[in-house]
Amino acid sequence: MDEMLTCRILDDLAEVIAIPSVFSTPEDGAPYGKQCLRALEWFVAKARAYGLKAELIDGACAYAEVGEGKECVGILGHLDVVPAGNGWATDPFKMVEENGKVYGRGVGDDKGAVVVCLHALKTLAESKQKLKRRVRLIVGADEERGSSCIRRYLEKGGEVPAMSFVPDSEFPVINSEKGIAHIILKFADDKLAENISYIDGAECANAVPDKSSFKIIKGSALDNALKELCGGAPTADVFKTAPLAEYIVSAGNAFSDYEITNGECVTVTANGTAEHASTPEKGDNALWKTLGALAAFNNVIGSKYLEKISGYLCTPLASSKLGIYVNDPKSGDLSMCLSQARMVNGELELLIDFRLPLGVTAEFVAEHLEKATGCKAQVRDYHGNLYIEEDAPLIKTLLKVYRKLTGDMTAPLKVGGGTYARELPNAVAFGCTPVDIDINMHRADENFPIAQLFKNYEIYLAAAIELADL
Fold it and tell me: Strand pairing partners for 273?
């Protein structure tokens, strides 16, 4: 790559990273909030400046296109990002270059891939190379909440590509994506409602919460118990008293994981480590810690649900305890992530993100949740599995391109993460990250190697050409 192209890619990436395109309150013309719309408008303006045909669709998605032909090859990426979260060493919305990497929310998921693919289309346009199909880069702004943006694209008459790849996962190519189910449990628990007024978890459903707090109602049984343990206003010493200390030690947590704040009411906060919900074992779930702390005081609270919640849902063995664990050779094993919590009209609501292998339904999981916890389980949303055989032409072609440019002979992968690939026929995830690189996706200090960013430009340009001429 020449120096000018290198600079342009990094400059464009810095521009779009500076747009905090996290979902916010919908407005007219901005179904996912002003910042998500800003990111889409930036994309359309940049594509047109590069000589590409580009269009904004319904404020929800956009596309840029190059070439001629009745059919098109699709490349699908997204410009929305998860909330920044806590623990960043730098401003998450100001791209930083350091030690051969770029840092910022979205550099890896998925703005970096969108920028290099945009430049690949620009290169195709400038080359005037004649191909059998057009190449269309489709970008959305609601991938992190379930990909409604691509469904809007289709509803508004967006062209369905003959074949597509999605640079939003891992290399070499993903031929199996697990089903995704978000299931809500509602606990009508008067005793819990008498003691806490508030509880929270992750800001989005597809993340391990790195922080969770609950507020104790002044004068409640729990409030009085904590004050009695401390001989007055609760301090950090309360975490070293029974029964809370027994829970913290037995769960393998640290006393320093917890904080206590005195104000109009007592607030207990637990700290953990964020992670993508598809790989919950890599994170440290702060919501487990707050619910576990409440369960430790259940002799005071008197809830009929807390011990079941802590025992069945706040453990690495949760899926086995619930009787739902499955490991399928084609699609992998079942995983679950307790991600969100809130108190609504005196009810505790918990949201669990499940990644389901082939043959496991959301209804099957919901039935087992109800049996174990004794409350109603509601399937809020469900996205089915994606599976394409390894000898399919799309898989073989992408593997050929990748292997030629990298020498890596790794076989196709199965993952728990969900991508736009399941929204369109004949589509698969293709990169943008090698399996041996950890980019802190959905965590603080998200980063991406600059050398890999430029290698991806070469890979995606070659893949677009190969598929467009297939």
Answer: 284
pLDDT in tens, 121-145: 999 999 999 999 999 999 999 999 9
> Quick one: tokens of 467?
């598929």
Phi, psi of 165 (to 5 degrees): -130, 155
- Beta-ladder partners of 216: 196, 266
Find all residues with CB under 8 Å of 60, minimum gap 6, and list them: 31, 32, 40, 140, 141, 142, 148, 149, 152, 153
CATH of region 180-383: 3.30.70.360
Residue 1 reports pLDDT greater than 80: no
**Percent above pLDDT 90 for the chain:** 96
The angle at the Cα of 155, spanning 152 to 158, to the nearest 5 degrees, equals 85
Distance (Å, rounded) from C-alpha 171 to C-alpha 154? 27
Q: Decide if 3-178+386-468 and 180-383 have a common fold.
A: no
* 429 three-state secondary structure: strand
CA within 13 Å, CB half, 395: 15
Superfamily of 3-178+386-468 according to CATH: Zn peptidases (3.40.630.10)
> What are the extents of the domains in the chain?
3-178+386-468, 180-383
User: How far, in Å, CA of 370 to CA of 381, rounded?
Assistant: 17
CB-based contact 175:395 (threshold 8 Å): yes
Torsion, Cα of 352, 357, 358, 362 (10° steps): -10
**Separation of alpha carbons 112 and 431, rounded Å:** 12
The number of beta carbons lying within 10 Å of the beta carbon of residue 317 is 10
pLDDT digits 0-9 by tens, 365-399: 999 999 999 999 999 999 999 999 999 999 999 99
For the chain, the maximum distance between any two Cα atoms, rounded to a whole number of angstroms, is 80
Is there a contact between 201 and 209 (Cβ–Cβ < 8 Å)? Answer: yes
Q: How many residues does the chain have?
A: 470
